[in-house]
Amino acid sequence: MRYSAIKGVVQVFGEYLRQYRIDNGLTQADLAGKLSVSQNAISQYEAGKRHPPISRIAHIAKALGCSVGDLVSDLDT
Prior knowledge:
Number of helices: 5
Radius of gyration: 12 Å
Number of strands: 0
Low-confidence stretches: none
Strand content: under 5%
Distance between the termini: 13 Å
Helix content: over 70%
């Protein structure tokens, strides 16, 4: 996978993350607290500047009450 494709995947993940967070009535700080990460990390995930470790994605999904598939669906299209 080329760098530009990877960057696009990270941005799409960030958009899904933001939408699920908002749908759950959580601030970035609220979600960060649930995941024991900084609010800045959540901000960077949502902006597509950084991606969470694969091992953290399941924790994110659980905190948002969704499945991992919900957060990463359509990322391969």
